[in-house]
Amino acid sequence: MSGGGQRAGTGAEPPGTEQPGAEQPVGIDELLERVRAGYTRVEAREAYDAAGSGEALLVDIRYAALRERDGLIPGALVVERNELEWRLDPQGSHRVPEATGHDLRIVVICNEGYASSLAAASLHGLGLHRATDLVGGFQAWKAAGLPVTP
């Protein structure tokens, strides 16, 4: 594209001249509140029971250093956050065998329950409508005295 003109809607508009209907930026706290309103989060004991009965797949998205430091949840599928959507999309060419369909109940687990909320919302965007996350993350699991392997 030649010429020096600005294109409409590029974010380069002067303050106060935003496009009608454009969403205003939000902070992370409000974003978390919004995404969490779209599903019911689970507590550690509920996640443990659901996984034990085969009703849910636990997915640990913590990075390697945290897993090495704190341990693993037995039976949880480890998928680092940057690969999550590719591994759990039932229609994706890079999916894990556990990604059996859009009705799969997935409980995403991060370290403290923040990144997992955003990850669960992203899975909803792929049609995994039963995706949720663990309130308090791995630290809540551990504090509840649930199984952890070194």
Query: What can be said about the biggest beta sheet?
Result: 4 strands, parallel
Number of strands: 4
Fraction in beta strands: 5-15%
Number of helices: 6
> Which strand order do you get reading across the main beta sheet?
2-1-3-4
Task: Tell me, rounded to a whole number, the average pLDDT.
Answer: 90
Q: How would the global form be characterised?
A: globular
- Low-confidence segments, given as residue ranges, are 1-11
Radius of gyration (CA) equals 19 Å
From the N-terminal CA to the C-terminal CA, the straight-line distance is 56 Å
What is the helix fraction of residues, given as a range? Answer: 25-40%
Written as H for each helix and E for each strand, in order along the chain, the element string is HHEHEHEHEH
- Coarse structural class: alpha/beta
Descriptive notes:
The protein is an alpha/beta fold and 150 residues long. Helix content is 32%, strand content 8%. It contains 6 helices and 4 strands, in the order H-H-E-H-E-H-E-H-E-H. The protein has helices at residues 28-36, 44-52, 64-70, 84-88, 115-125, 137-143, and strands at 57-60, 77-78, 106-109, 132-133. It has a 4-stranded parallel beta sheet, with helices on both faces. The longest helix is centred in the C-terminal third of the chain and has 11 residues, at 115-125. The chain is globular, with a radius of gyration of 19 Å.
